[in-house]
């Protein structure tokens, strides 16, 4: 285990509070990207409240605006930049408002430079490994009146220190728990190892305490997060961590993501089968069905090895859900390579496929590869893949008709006050009539009708 640095000191919070006290200061946080970012934003909010800000959903009344950015694809970065740009007017009208940009985008030198030069109203940046230093960044702007661009420390093992951070969970019934940070895999297309640095695992004991406290406080749905949970290396391996958490008493479901096919071992499948609380769902990103492309992606498995895991999983957990990620249009992908991917989709019949158009990321090996694929070809392949998977998902969903499933009610359907939304243990979206007071509870729902991505049911 690596020694984690400590969070900002109470004295720093105290000094920020001297500015916020009795002044109705509000914080607005906007989050882009993955669940790891959502989890980080809950920590940013916790710190902001501790500094004396109260939360607002309206950026117009905010005196601290935080944009938590994602860098996984160009589109995500452009969306964040455009959002940051939209705060220019607000900053002009409220020069005292502090605008901070945090998250993956800010860990890339060229983006920080761009923010410095082209977005003069951005007051500070903070990388994902240093979010615990938010109070220092805010204080530096408040006291120093200068802009503050905090790069990574240069230590690839620096960790966001979550032990003492005052986290505010958005929902009481559902929570994310980061079990590790960073990634060592360097898939050739991926920016994550550069912006979230090397793997650091939290201690199993610390994770156990966090999960137990959540369960004791009525949390029913807990997702363990890591870029590659299967290479968790705290004081035990991932299957054992799952077993330990599964022994916690209470009414809860444990989900986890993401699993890397090169590390998902038989032990994981055994623990999933034997566990009382472990969700029957495995997210196993394939990325491509062509061995040639998998090698160029630096994925460290071939299709045979991947299919061995799928076969074992299906044999041991026949009713469980299997989902995947696919990248369409990786450099050098031929029609034949792409068809190999389609063939795997047909063979495996995933419950859900998250497909992405390949997006070159500055600094990654794939961005430098010859044979970048024409955008038109990428889109055409992407549409074909989605059409195939829509059919498969619809067929898989049909199997749920007339079944009664446990569903965790998680909200109201937009625009329909008496329709609730919920998730099955296999993470399927369900719509059903019900009262808002049910949100946050497990309910049994009989599925009347199934579409590819939504099941419609009735409470039994
Ligand atoms: N372009 C497109 N998709 C990407 N992903 C990661 N990097 C890229 C990229 N450069 C996808 C992978 C990964 C998911 C989280 O995002 O499929 O599993
Ligand atoms: Fe990116 Fe590969 Fe690490 Fe996943 S395992 S975060 S795709 S480098």
Description:
The protein is an alpha/beta fold. The chain is built from 15 helices and 19 strands. The strands form 5 sheets. It has a 6-stranded parallel β-sheet, with helices on both faces. It has a 5-stranded mixed beta barrel with strand order 15-16-17-19-18. The longest helix has 24 residues, at 375-398. The chain is globular and about 60 Å long. The protein starts with 9 loop residues before the first helix and ends with a strand. The model is unreliable at 1-5 (pLDDT under 50). The structure holds 5'-deoxyadenosine and iron/sulfur cluster.
In short:
This protein is α/β, with parallel strands linked by helices and 460 residues long. Helix content is 36%, strand content 21%. The strands form 5 sheets. It has a 6-stranded parallel sheet with strand order 2-1-3-4-5-6, with helices on both faces. Strands 15-16-17-19-18 form a 5-stranded mixed β-barrel. A 3-stranded parallel sheet has the order 7-10-11, sandwiched between helices.
Bound molecules: 5'-deoxyadenosine, iron/sulfur cluster
Number of strands: 19
State the shape.
globular
- Which stretches are low in confidence, meaning pLDDT under 50 for 5 or more residues running? 1-5
What class would the helix/strand composition place it in?
alpha/beta
Q: Any idea what the radius of gyration is? A: 23 Å
């Amino acid at each position: 285990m690596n020694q984690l640095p400590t969070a900002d000191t109470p004295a720093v919070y105290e000094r920020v509070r001297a500015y916020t006290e009795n002044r109705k200061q509000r914080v607005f946080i906007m989050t882009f990207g993955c669940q790891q970012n959502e989890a980080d934003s809950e920590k940013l909010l916790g710190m902001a409240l501790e500094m004396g800000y109260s939360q607002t959903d309206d950026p117009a009344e905010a005196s601290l605006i935080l944009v938590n950015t994602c860098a996984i694809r160009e589109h995500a970065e452009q969306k964040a930049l455009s959002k940051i740009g939209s705060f220019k007017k607000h900053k002009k009208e409220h020069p005292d408002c502090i605008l901070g940009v945090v998250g993956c985008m800010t860990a890339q030198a060229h983006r920080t430079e761009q923010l410095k030069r082209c977005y003069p109203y951005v007051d500070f940046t903070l990388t994902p490994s240093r979010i615990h230093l938010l109070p220092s960044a805010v204080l530096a702007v408040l006291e120093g009146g200068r802009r503050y661009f905090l790069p990574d420390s240069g230590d690839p093992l620096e960790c966001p220190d979550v032990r003492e951070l005052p986290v505010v969970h958005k929902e009481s019934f559902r929570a994310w728990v980061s079990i590790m940070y960073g990634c060592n895999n360097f898939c050739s297309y991926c920016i994550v190892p550069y912006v979230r640095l090397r793997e650091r695992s939290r201690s199993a004991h610390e994770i156990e305490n966090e999960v137990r406290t959540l369960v004791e406080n009525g949390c029913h749905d807990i997702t363990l997060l890591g870029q590659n949970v299967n290479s968790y290396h705290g004081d035990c391996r991932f299957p054992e961590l799952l077993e330990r958490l599964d022994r916690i008493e209470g009414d809860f479901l444990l989900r986890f993501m993401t699993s890397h096919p090169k590390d998902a071992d038989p032990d994981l499948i055994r623990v999933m089968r034997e566990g009382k609380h472990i969700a029957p769902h495995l997210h196993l990103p394939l990325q491509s069905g062509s061995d040639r492309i998998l090698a160029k992606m630096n994925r460290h498995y071939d299709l045979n090895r991947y299919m061995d895991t799928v076969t074992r999983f299906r044999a041991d957990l026949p009713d469980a859900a299997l989902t995947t990620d696919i990248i369409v249009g990786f450099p050098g992908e031929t029609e034949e390579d792409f068809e190999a991917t389609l063939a795997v989709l047909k063979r495996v019949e995933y419950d859900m496929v998250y497909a992405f158009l390949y997006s070159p990321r500055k600094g990654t090996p794939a961005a430098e590869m010859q044979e970048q694929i024409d955008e038109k070809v990428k889109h055409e392949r992407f549409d074909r893949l989605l059409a195939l998977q829509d059919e498969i998902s619809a067929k898989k969903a049909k199997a749920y008709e007339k079944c009664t499933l446990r569903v965790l009610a998680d909200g109201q359907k937009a625009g329909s006050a008496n329709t609730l939304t919920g998730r099955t243990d296999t993470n399927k979206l369900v719509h059903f009539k019900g009262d808002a007071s049910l949100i946050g509870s497990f309910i049994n729902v009989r599925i009347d009708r199934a579409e590819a991505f939504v099941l419609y049911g009735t409470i039994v």
